[in-house]
Amino acid sequence: MADTLIVLPTFNEIENLESILGRIRQAVPAADVLIVDDSSPDGTGEFAERLATDDAGVAVLHRTEKDGLGAAYLAGFAHAIDSGYDYVIEIDADGSHNPASLPAMIELARGGVDLVIGSRWIPGGQVRNWPWIRQVISRGGNAYSRIVLGSKVHDLTSGFRVYRTSALTPERRASVSSQGYCFQVELAWRLERAGLTVVEHPITFVERTLGTSKMHVGIVVEALWRVTVWGLTRNAPQRVSAGGR
Ligand SMILES: Nc1nc2c(ncn2[C@@H]2O[C@H](COP(=O)(O)OP(=O)(O)OP(=O)(O)O)[C@@H](O)[C@H]2O)c(=O)[nH]1
Ligand SMILES: [Mg+2]
To answer: Which residue has the CA at smallest separation from atom 12 of ligand 1?
Structure first.
């Protein structure tokens, strides 16, 4: 059995699915793939089923309603852990993340890293086809989060990752409360705070050319709001336990 599960979340990605799946299967043929579809109205879920019929390494998890990226990934992680995989991977279905980066990222995880983050904002990393305003929001939001949270990670919002499944304990998964980009920030930060090894690997991110973005202003506001609250309260629990118990 494969020891790595790639979780591919989809919402209205019918134009992108076959291409990204083909690229994943080519780059990492030994890994299994779980497509997690939230009942996409464009028929992505049914199309995913057809693709899975032809390929024993591909399965589909259908969820009844659009419930956000974070919830889709948590469902995928639970499946990976229950099925006994050692590594679980996050990758967007819109083609922004190049599966060719995965062998190097998986190698780092096999070498003992708990979380490998494909990073746009370290030397060697880059973004193609983004308007300047998105670059400013992503760079600015990441710099702000890094400082406020006291994190060492430069691309906390990146959704291209390899996790060692042992890092995703039930408590850590249950403690994640956010959606959107903030889900990524929260999970990386929780693992970092737990003392696990988090390493960034440079990637080239290419903006989608087909389909529509699910990004909206509420996602950015949620992230800024939550990061600020975590930053303001992050030392509180330590103070209590150090002083009293
Ligand atoms: N299952 C599921 N997948 C989702 C949901 N929201 C987004 N996705 C998927 O998550 C991935 C990232 O979403 P995108 O729309 O590309 O969002 P983004 O990358 O933040 O924004 P862009 O850079 O504008 O594309 C894609 O594969 C989406 O199909 C959701 O609620 N449920
Ligand atoms: Mg995208």
So the answer is: 92
